[in-house]
Amino acid sequence: MPQQRRRRYLGEAKKQHKSRFIDRCLARKPEELTEEERGFVREWLREDFHTKHIYQALNHMRYVLKATTDTQATKRLKNWLERYQFHTSGVVSKIAKTVIVREKAMVDTIYSPFSNGIMEGTNNKIKLIKRRGFGYRNDAHLFLRLRLETGH
Q: Phi and psi dihedrals of 75, rounded to 5?
């Protein structure tokens, strides 16, 4: 439903903008936007109720993710959940309910100094190599290609 609403909204009101541009502007931090992009974002948020509330929840979650201690992360996440769990926008409340299920893992992740970003990137690269290769005759050829492209 939200995807259909978004498509209709983009089709009716924003023909001069491509959907990728809109997504990019809404996904970036407000301080990273140019003044012109900020103007577009303000206009889009004024026109669409659901987009406005999703954008507010995203920016509030960015604040939550800046926590540096266990106590601070727990407090900020609890505040976020209290605010958005029963939100009038169904999309936002559904996201909050998903976060509730994984609340402990979220708190641990927020203040942890460790990241699995490098491993995720390597896995993505391996999948891309497999896809580009259209299959390999044997595993040795695949592993050789992986070593060549990843430098390991």
A: -65, -50
- The Cα 32–Cα 85 span in angstroms is 28
pLDDT-derived band at 78, boundaries 50, 70, 90: very high
| Sequential DSSP letters for 73-102 | HHHHHHHHHHHHTT-SSHHHHHHHHHHHHT
What average pLDDT is seen over the chain? 82
User: Angle formed by the axes of helices 35-47 and 19-27, to 10°?
Assistant: 100
Structure letter (DSSP) for residue 68:
-
Distance CA 110, CA 73 (A): 6
Global confidence as pTM:
0.63
* Overall residue count recorded for the chain in this entry: 152
Residue ranges per domain, the chain? 2-111, 117-150
Question: How much of the chain is helix, strand and coil, in % rounded to 5?
Answer: 80, 0, 20
- Distance CA(77)–CA(48), nearest Å, equals 26
The secondary structure of residue 15, as a DSSP letter, is: T
Helix (H) or strand (E) holding 36: helix 35-47
